[in-house]
TrEMBL record:
Places the protein is found: Cytoplasm, Cytosol
Main localization of the protein described in the UniProt heading: cytoplasm
InterPro entries: FIIND_dom
Statement: the UniProt record of this protein carries the keyword Cytoplasm: yes
GO cellular component: cytosol
Pfam families xrefs: FIIND, UPA-FIIND
Protein name from the UniProt record: FIIND domain-containing protein
Residue stretches making up the FIIND domain: 1-220
Keywords (A to Z) from UniProt: Cytoplasm
Species whose genome carries this gene: Esox lucius
Amino acid sequence: MAGKGDVRVKISKWDTSVLGSMTPAGPLFSIKCQAVLKLHLPHCMCDDEEVLSVAHFTGGTMEIVKPLKTTASHVVVNIPNPSLVGLIRCGLSALPVQSQVLLFLCPQGNTNQKGILNVFLLPKNVPTYEVEHQQKGSTFIQTSSECTLSPGRKYGLCCELVDYNLHLKSRTFDGDFSPNFLPTFQVNLECISDAKNMNLTLLDRETNDQKVWECVVQTG
């Protein structure tokens, strides 16, 4: 920013009908602040050669702005008076993107029950705080979340226990940037066993169940 002031940021819904051949490459940020010097928008691209642009919506029109530079994690752009801004790229792409697996433990009505484990597969540049805000009443489980996923590809979640393994139905990773985030998988911890720990493994169904992410979760 050019000086001291308040910055208010929230995620809005993309209107893809106005993007033409372009597709979202990150959340659409609604920014309310005074004049800024530069914006640093997080991206999730793995390929450094992926060409990204910035869509700037103001007064009912969209302007496509070229970045000043692109780093390994952010796109830097000069938009003095931002309102609605977001990253876009050309066409649909199945190229891998930096992603994250977020875990939230949702309690059941009965305090003696173990609850539901909500598992989210999201691009890395979706802010964690936005998902936390929508999961009020749930406990965010901090764990190693980073992985690499490919949009349009199917992934399965395996829950490994001492006495048996639980395989959930495969889901397609769509790389969603919607402001309404829904869990990709749900695990009913009440149904698994009395095991204290559970090993979660995310499998790529299209590469002979190659492991792309795993962690250990305490269930008791």
